[in-house]
Amino acid sequence: MAAAGSGGSRADNGYGGQQARRRKGPGALATGYLVIYNVVMTAGWLVIAVGLVRAYLAKGSYHSLYYSIEKPLKFFQTGALLEVQTEDSVLLFVVAWTITEIIRYSFYTFSLLNHLPYLIKWARYTLFIVLYPMGVSGELLTIYAALPFVRQSGLYSISLPNKYNFSFDYYTFLILVMISYIPIKATFVICLYI
């Protein structure tokens, strides 16, 4: 916002600093689409959160919670293929993803409407301190739990000989992914602070 009594066009960037000029945002059609998309995604992740809580309250245990939210989770997290999972590890990253996505899409929606509550801004930039390691741990534990099945079944592996003279060992690939996970994720977190 412009300083009182000044004719300048400097705006507060939300972090106590000043921006030289205000960036032009998306047009009305794009803003409308983005608001609708973010509201739908927030609602979807809220459905997942409510489903988790309802299933937990009904069963009194976290065992089998994944199956109570499997369909909406696959719909709203389309990239997540959970072929092999353990209850505990999946629960770790599903809870972390759910809370993160509710906060993220709420943040985007309110930002687009230029009405961002402090609590959502605080949650967006603070809760990842707990949610990020929780999600990473769940993802790594799920990959680890899948390793015996992947090795035994040869899942997604390509053996020689074949007409392309190419081989790929998915089991080894998953181990390399696990080894690289911590340095890559740590670099990402460090970049957030720089």
Structure description:
66% of the residues lie in helices and 2% in strands. With 194 residues, the protein is an all-alpha fold. Strands 1-2 form a two-stranded antiparallel ribbon. The model is unreliable at 1-15 and 79-84 (pLDDT under 50).
Task: State the end-to-end distance.
Answer: 25 Å
From the alpha-carbon coordinates, what is the Rg to the nearest angstrom? 22 Å
Strand order of the largest sheet: 1-2
SSE string: EEHHHHHH
The helix content, as a percent range, equals 55-70%
Weakly predicted, low-confidence segments: 1-15, 79-84
| Beta content | under 5%
| Oligomer kind | single chain
Task: List the total number of helices.
Answer: 6
What integer is the average pLDDT? 81
* Shape, principal axes of CA atoms: globular
The main β sheet shows up as: 2 strands, antiparallel
Give me the count of strands.
2
Secondary-structure content class: mainly alpha
Transmembrane segments: 31-57, 90-113, 125-150, 170-193
EC number: 4.2.1.134
InterPro entries: Tyr_Pase-like_PTPLA
Pathway: Lipid metabolism; fatty acid biosynthesis
